[in-house]
Amino acid sequence: MARGGRQTWALLLGMLLWGMQESGWAAVGHHAEFNLTEEIFRWINFIVLAVILYIIISKIVPRVLDGRRQQIEQAIQEAKASRAESQRLLEENQRKTANLQQELAQLQQQAAQEREELAHRLEVEAQQLAARIVAQARTEVERATERARASLREEAAALTVQIAEDMLRRELRDEDQQAIVRRYIARIGELN
Q1: Within 10 A of 39 (CB to CB), how many other CB atoms are there?
Q2: N or C: which end of the chain has fewer CB within 10 A?
Q3: Average pLDDT of 17-38?
């Protein structure tokens, strides 16, 4: 209730009590006599005061009650709006939480799948690398073997030539050597 409304109520209540007290004191002072005119004036005073009080109260109380009712309705509307907003936020947070749990599960599943794919890819790459290393090693071994064989052939041929020369020197005489040289020269001459 507003401050002015309280003061008005207090003033009206004071006037009512004063009016009742005056009529009571007046009645006490005149025990013996009953004056109809005074009694009528007292009742008229009382009725006028009651009507004035009723008019004032009927104008003030509805305004005060309307103001209070509007405050209560506004508070109720604000509470409903707050409750609706809170409910909306709660549902949104629950939805986000549910979505986060789903996203987390999907991320975990995706990470596990990527780990498996990476492990498989690394295993395949390791096998391919091992196969390349083995193939290179075989190629190197074959080349080394071929070089060793060629070297052995060259040495064997050189050794064979040297042994043949040594044998021919010991067994051929000068005349035989000269005859062989002449034959080769004749063949070369025929070829030209």
Answers
A1: 13
A2: C
A3: 63
